[in-house]
Amino acid sequence: MPKTSFPREDLKILLLEGVSPTAVEAFQAAGYTRIEYHDKALPHDELLAAIEDAHMVGLRSRTQLTDEVIGQARRLFAVGCFCIGTNQVQLDTARLRGIPVFNAPYSNTRSVAELVLAEAILLMRRIPERNAAAHRGDWLKSADGSYEVRGKTLGIVGYGHIGTQVGVLAESLGMRVLYHDIESKLMLGNAQCADSLNALLSASDVVTLHVPQTPETANMIGAAEIAAMRPGSMLINASRGNVVDIDALAAALRSGHLAGAAVDVFPREPKSKGEEFVSPLRDLDNVLLTPHVGGSTQEAQANIGQEVAAKLIRYSDNGSTLSAVNFPEVALPGHPDSRRLLHIHRNVPGMLSRVNEVCSRDDINIDGQYLQTDGEIGYVVIDISATEAAAESIKEQLAAIDGTLRTRLLY
Ligand SMILES: NC(=O)C1=CN([C@@H]2O[C@H](COP(=O)(O)OP(=O)(O)OC[C@H]3O[C@@H](n4cnc5c(N)ncnc54)[C@H](O)[C@@H]3O)[C@@H](O)[C@H]2O)C=CC1
Ligand SMILES: O=C(O)CCC(=O)C(=O)O
User: Rounded distance, CA 223 to CA 227, Å?
Assistant: First the structure.
């Protein structure tokens, strides 16, 4: 294992929300043994205390890394979202504090897609209300309102990783697939791009949502969009809770305009198992309610644990930011014979020449330099041949450059 200038065993890794043990194993195997593990999200004040001296933090969808929390985390240098969504982290705040955020963009894709397909079948067969009735002792043996999915139209809103997987699986059952996306997308199989969101809504028997949480997707399915859906059609939401106006959905399900829904994500989700789940959908028999488990399978969680831990370890050991969601991406070779310095700065004119001025002392040779910038920040990695003392001194001088956000000497 290559040496690092700051001992790995002194770096605190805070793991929250029961991330997979595969993450713990990966950190330990890489020499990171100072792990604080919590199997649930921490209440706000406990989170503030736990994150204060953490160097890396791993979380899922419940923990909110707000400006306040990030501000408290004085030593934090990387965040791992052990999931796809990263809306729970104030990404801009993290970036401006020199903190890259990583996620697992594909590891639970298949799990969500399988659940959605199963829900489409169950909704088309009106299983939710038959199941609820049977639990109460009623025997709803009837074909009324029950249909095969074969030959029906599935409308996919957000044709990204999950949306395309859902489309491929749905076609294998003989469904017709329509999609809507703000980007131009490669159509898989026989999928067709709808002319507009409304065109998709009015042509689909089942509509399923797979967009990220952004300002544009907030309440994108409201009363008007629901009214545009076919009478007797179904809605599936396994994206984010605020994409659907939940009161408008409840009203459409009560009035019978929509025949059913499957909802995995909610505007307000309980923070822990002990907190009551409150929703206007709770007393509706024609709704399948699941507690945000679209990506919760053994396979997905194990893969996510390994994937995100590997990204955090790579950044910590080597400086690589490949696939960070809020940061300039730099893929770095190993450089065992050099010392490696990281300099994260505001992207202002003249910064690189100031960095190079500091590194151009007589006893120092620059072996390699890697720079990437985005609109706001720059990330430069400098490999130098120098003694440890000289490298430490360079790090101090780099830190003193106006506009510096963070400096680290990796090894
Ligand atoms: N229920 C669960 O447990 C899980 C939920 N998710 C949610 O699913 C979302 C989607 O995941 P992926 O498919 O992997 O993401 P992705 O980024 O691959 O795909 C999202 C697609 O939505 C499109 N899009 C964005 N804004 C849009 C808009 N306003 N209108 C139409 N299309 C729009 C994008 O262009 C993209 O094609 C995640 O952001 C996450 O919030 C993800 C995993 C598990
Ligand atoms: O597993 C989780 O906690 C969240 C899953 C999810 O919603 C995501 O991956 O974006």
Answer: 6
Sign for the pseudo-dihedral over CA of 286, 290, 291, 292: negative
Kindly give, in sequence order, each residue whose CB lies less than 8 Å from that of residue 38, ignoring residues fewer than 6 positions away: 14, 15, 16, 17, 18, 50
126 touches 145 (CB < 8 A)? yes
Residue 241 in contact with ligand 1 by CB distance below 6 A: no
Identify which of 165, 214, 292 to mutate to test ligand 2's pocket (most ligand atoms within 8 A of the CB): 292
343 catalytic residue (yes or no): no
Instruction: Tell me, in angstroms, the distance from the centre of ligand 2 to residue 61's CA.
Output: 5
What are the tokens at 389? 């003392």
Nearest one of 266, 306, 323 to 61, comparing CA atoms = 266
Residue of minimum CA distance from atom 37 in ligand 1: 160
Determine whether the shortest distance from the Cβ of 200 to ligand 1 is under 6 A.
Answer: no
Fold adopted by 1-103+297-327: Rossmann fold (3.40.50)
Q: Decide: 20 and 82 in contact? Cβ < 8 Å.
A: yes
Measured distance CA(381)–CA(319) in Å, rounded: 8
Domain 109-289 has CATH 1.10.10.10: no
Work out which ligand 2 atom sits closest to the CA atom of 301. Answer: 1
Active site residue 9: no
Give distance in angstroms: CA of 166 to centre of ligand 1.
12
Contact 208, 116 (CB under 8 A): yes
Q: What is the pLDDT of residues 331-342, one digit of tens each?
A: 998 877 889 999
Which one of the listed residues 95, 180, 292, 340 is annotated catalytic? 292
In one-letter notation, the amino acid at residue 397 is: Q
What CATH class has 328-410?
alpha beta
pLDDT band, very low/low/confident/very high, at 5 (cuts 50, 70, 90):
confident
Would 1-103+297-327 and 109-289 be classified into the same CATH topology?
Answer: yes
Interface predicted TM-score (ipTM) over 0.95: yes
